[in-house]
Amino acid sequence: MSPEAPEPGTVRPGGRTARVRTAVLRAAGDTLAERGFAHLDLADVAHRAGVGKTTVYRRWGTVTGLVADLLVDMAEQSLPRTETGSLLGDLKANARLVQRTLSDPRQGALFKAIIAAATCDPRTAEALHRFYDTRIREWAPCVQQAVDRGELPRGTDAHEVVRAVSAPLYYSLLAGGGPLDEAAADRAAQAAAAAARAGVYVR
């Protein structure tokens, strides 16, 4: 592969091949959620998706290439940022979106499998980092808007505030740190908003 060539699976197919990509990514996600990263096999994914394994090997190349593309797709399919007009309202909307995703039986299991794989596979870790970076950049403007409205001190790091909202929810997912419900989401948003108002996230 030349230095300029993209990673396998990172080029978005268009037209008639889009259906193949959708089917393969769905099959990969289902396998990850049901059986974990260790049991993700390209030939099995191809069979499950109803496509030729040659197509899967040619397009994605490796399991990690497939997971990377799955994370790209998940980031793009995530719901857009909600604007409520207040910092707390926006952070609660973000927290509840994260909470609904992580408490969903399929999505929660899928994230657990990917996070577990990322601890020992550098390419999966990088793909996961890109996923979170995309989502944080989507939501960071709501914090900057709060700065502009005078709700938060100048110099507040918007990305850190958004990370602070989701961190306790991922802790609950991975470590069983209490129920992963709307009340937990609202507490996470309230804590992040209070800390931000107090200047904790000023750079």
Automatic annotation (TrEMBL):
Protein's UniProt keywords contain DNA-binding: yes
Pfam family membership, one: TetR_C_11
GO MF, one example: DNA-binding transcription factor activity
Cross-referenced InterPro entries: Homeodomain-like_sf, HTH-type_TetR-like_transc_reg, HTH_TetR, Tet_transcr_reg_TetR-rel_C_sf, TetR_C
Sequence ranges assigned to domain HTH tetR-type in this UniProt record: 18-78
Location of the DNA-binding region in this protein: 41-60
Keyword annotations from UniProtKB, A to Z: DNA-binding, Transcription, Transcription regulation
The protein, known as: DNA-binding transcriptional regulator, AcrR family
Species whose genome carries this gene: Thermomonospora echinospora
